[in-house]
Design a protein that fits this description.
The protein is of the alpha+beta class and about 850 residues long. The chain has 26 helices and 20 strands. It folds into four domains: about 190 residues, no CATH class; about 160 residues, no CATH class; about 250 residues, no CATH class; about 150 residues, no CATH class. It is about 60% helix and about 15% strand.
Length: about 850
């Protein structure tokens, strides 16, 4: 039997290798994801290991036993006084604004440079570290993005204590960990400068270097005794171990979504393999029957089919592993191009876990997918060696009631889950239930595939039949001849297309809903904001913007804060033009200085009514004065209510300025011209940034398009595998129908008509899968989109017809390409040799 298996593998080598490509693509996805995850984990560990190198003891605020939000300066002195400590430094962070080479402020994360060189967590790249309070070193990414360089003079604008003129004296390296991309600009300064950047810079940690002969454990206990129970004191090794544990969880969060998409690709690939072995077993009916005649038992036949699957899985694993490593390396290079640091081969680690996972996935998926066809092979009776292959149409009809009953149960369960998703109050529960319902409905459609093939195929075949005549009608008949095979082939495409379409519908709906809400929320043409949180725009800026000839109205705002929430101070002229509240109770006509209009939501949550007084203040002191409530309103972009601009300016007198300025252009002024005029004013103010509803809309559209592009790329692999499955099925069917094809040629069918027949058959299968997937995807997309509703948000359903049309056209083109090789082979087979086939 072993020799028979080996001989069979040799005879079908090309066929099996071709079929293994589907699994190889899925394995490549899994391998690439795991390798990329390992690379990110390695770079994260490298980056965070720097923070604990040479650290003997670390002290942080004990959140469970302390009310402190930052470590006071006195704690550093206490640590330095502990015997056995040769050096100690505090690690403080403050958010400020760094003025770039174009004169515009950019938010920056500024950290303290340790005075003890051994405790510095940064590696110098060029120049030197700052030595005085008028110097700064920037990370390498910041140098590129700001246009600054060593020797450049810049301004660091703190939120509380004014501006500081600094010289860039050096650059330091950041890790290639892409997780650190979100930090923005980063810089390090001396402790002397840090002390002037804020009233209380956030000091998160005090680290200590051990003197020779001092053990970290003894030093930890001594520091803990000196600081007291408000602090969590650990050795550097403990800090590193705890950090690595957290990083491991982050790695799972990063790779899990990618592995979900990889699993989808593998499910689609398993469908292709299942269909391949089903066809191969059907084609080998006589061969298997002869084996039974000469003494092979059922288990030997079963093992022979699984042996072929095992070989195919091994080949797919090798191909997929190599391709996955290449994909991971390319992604690493892409991350480097985004500015996440340098990349190298060392940052694309290959572990035994990844290798074993590749082979386990490739072999298991292939063998499991081939198990049912292998079981079917054991049912071939020896007498089958004397008769032709039996069509499976009867099998489909016999299984019809069972299929319908099972599918009905899935539909009921799926519909129930969708109803739960629509009614759930929590977003997570709503999305989970909707997604579960979608998967159940998808399973029902796949299960009903053999019963749907006939009606859908006839409907789709009408137009080709009218256009191309006999070849197209033969193609329709071929697609209907074996509904199980056609359904199995199209099922993979249904899965891929339905997911792509549902995600596209969700993305389009989110985009359309956001656009509609923007139009409602932003009656102003432009809004000038501060680029740095906590820094106010100059008071004079609003008047300068209002003096621009193209501007009809420039309305400044200022915020005041209550114990919970904030209120917007505006001029009365802004009401009804750029601020559009709707009065629920009371009147805005009476809104004067010292008075407040609160939103209906705030009034209910705080138990406030007209006539009550609310304590407000600035960010630091929210108990400066009281305002009387004179109205209850609803509206957008008004915080928790409105007061007068004069009231807000009085409350914020310690930090004069405006939160933003809303600008309305004169009638007939072109938006581009208006913006250009505004920029002439804002260019002289580093903090001022102009935004508009149109730009926000473009940003949202760009983000949605990026998300869709990412998902399309990931699911595109599953669709590619499904289309490959069509080509594979068609190629195997051509081999199976060699004698039939020769007979058609003998009856007058030309080579061109034969090619056309196979192309139409391929297109019909692609359109069948795409059409069913399209209908299902739109329904699922609607269900998922509806689950986002609530809290007064009315979701707008949007079906991107253009994108879906492009996808259908792409499916047709891919189907034509998929049919090219099988059609060429069929046309090249001579009539005589074809008739001689059995």
């Amino acid at each position: 039997m072993l020799r028979t298996i080996i001989a069979g593998l040799r005879a079908r080598t090309a066929r099996l290798v071709l079929s293994s490509i589907a699994i190889a693509l899925g394995v490549a996805f899994v391998t690439g994801t795991l390798v990329l995850g390992d690379a990110i984990d390695a770079s994260s560990r490298e980056e965070y290991a720097k923070s604990s190198r040479n650290v003997a003891v670390s002290a942080q605020v004990n959140g469970d036993a302390s009310e402190l939000t930052s470590i006071p300066a006195s704690a550093l002195a206490e640590v330095r006084a502990v015997p056995g400590v040769s050096g100690a430094d505090s690690r403080a962070t403050v958010w400020a604004a760094l003025v770039d080479s174009r004169g515009k402020a950019r938010e920056a994360r500024v950290q303290t440079l340790a005075t003890t060189p051994e405790l510095r967590e940064f590696d110098l790249a060029d120049g030197r570290f700052p030595q005085s309070a008028d110097e700064i070193a920037l990370d390498e990414r910041g140098v590129k993005s700001t246009g600054l360089k060593i020797g450049s003079t810049t301004t660091l604008m703190s939120q509380e204590n004014g501006d500081h003129r600094l010289t860039v004296v050096g650059t330091y390296r950041q890790s290639s960990n892409p997780m650190s991309l979100g930090y923005g600009e980063q810089g390090v300064v001396t402790p002397e400068l840090m002390a002037t950047l804020g009233d209380e810079p956030v000091t998160g940690e005090v680290v200590a270097l051990a003197a020779p002969g001092s053990s970290p454990e003894q030093l930890r206990d001594a520091v803990a005794a000196a600081l007291g129970g408000e602090y969590r004191v650990r050795t550097g090794a403990q800090v590193e171990a705890d950090t690595m544990e957290q990083l491991a969880k982050q790695g799972v969060n990063f790779t899990l979504p990618l592995l979900v998409f990889a699993a989808i690709s593998l499910v689609v690939a398993s469908m292709v393999i299942y269909n391949t072995f089903t066809i191969l077993v059907a084609q080998r009916t006589k061969e298997l029957a002869l084996l039974r005649c000469v003494g092979a038992n059922r288990s030997q036949v079963f093992r022979s089919v699984l042996a072929e699957a095992l070989v195919m899985g091994l080949v797919a694993s090798v191909l997929g592993l190599g391709a996955g490593l290449g994909v991971a390396a390319l992604l690493q290079q892409g991350i480097g191009a985004l500015g996440a640091g340098s990349t190298s081969a060392a940052q694309t680690p290959i572990t035994w876990t990844t290798v074993l996972a590749a082979f386990a996935v490739g072999v298991l998926v292939t063998v499991l997918a081939a198990a049912l066809p292998a079981r079917k092979a054991t049912r071939v009776a020896p007498i089958a060696a004397l008769r032709n292959q039996i069509d499976s149409g009867d099998d489909v009809r016999r299984a019809g009631k069972l299929r319908i009953a099972s599918a009905a149960l899935l539909v009921v369960a799926g519909a129930g889950a969708l109803v739960v998703g629509q009614r759930a109050e929590q977003l997570e529960m709503s999305m989970f239930a909707s997604a579960a319902g979608a998967m159940l409905l998808l399973a029902a459609v796949v299960l009903l595939g053999p019963l749907l093939v006939g009606p859908v195929n006839k409907l789709l075949g009408i137009v080709p039949g009218l256009l191309f005549g006999v070849p197209a009608k033969l193609a329709v008949g071929n697609a209907e001849r074996n509904p199980r095979r056609t359904a199995a082939t199209t099922a993979a495409l249904i899965v891929g297309v339905s997911i792509v379409v549902s995600v596209t519908v969700v993305g389009g709906s989110v985009r359309e809903t956001a656009t509609q809400r923007l139009d409602e929320q932003y009656p102003a043409d432009f809004t000038v904001n501060s680029s740095v949180y906590g820094r106010q725009l100059p008071v004079a800026l609003a008047d300068r913007l209002g003096a621009v000839p193209q501007v009809a109205q420039a309305e400044p705002t200022s915020e005041v804060y209550a114990e919970s929430g904030y209120f917007i101070g505006v001029r009365r002229s802004a009401l009804g033009s750029v601020v559009l509240p709707e009065v629920v109770e009371g009147s805005l006509d009476a809104l004067g200085d010292g008075e407040l209009a609160v939103t209906e939501e705030y009034a209910k949550s705080a138990g406030i009514k007209i006539g009550d007084r609310v304590k407000v203040g600035d960010v630091e002191n929210r108990d400066k004065t009281e305002l009387e409530v004179v109205a209850v309103v609803t509206g957008r972009q008004i915080g928790y209510g409105l007061t007068t601009l004069a009231t807000a300016e009085s409350v914020n007198s310690a930090q004069p300025g405006h939160s933003n300025v809303m600008v309305k252009l004169k009638e007939g002024v072109d938006t581009a011209d208006g913006r250009a005029a505004l920029e002439k004013v804002t260019d002289t103010s580093p903090l001022a940034v102009i935004s508009s509803a149109a730009e926000t809309r473009d940003l949202i559209n760009s983000q949605v398009d990026q998300m869709l592009g990412f998902v399309w790329a990931l699911i595109g692999l599953a669709v590619l595998i499904a289309l490959f499955g069509i080509a594979n099925t068609l190629a195997l069917s051509v081999l199976e129908r060699t004698r039939e094809t020769a007979l058609l040629r003998a009856l007058g069918l030309t080579k061109g008509q034969l090619r056309l027949m196979l192309v139409v058959e391929s297109v019909l299968m692609a359109l069948m899968g795409a059409t069913i997937g399209l209908v299902l995807g739109i329904g699922v997309g609607w269900a998922l989109t509806s689950s986002f509703g609530g809290d007064g948000i009315e979701i707008v359903l949007d079906v991107p017809v253009g994108q879906i049309a492009v996808m259908l056209v792409a499916a047709v083109i891919a189907a034509v390409i998929a049919a090219a090789m099988p059609a060429r082979r069929a046309a090249r087979t001579s009539i005589v040799s074809g008739m001689a086939e059995e």
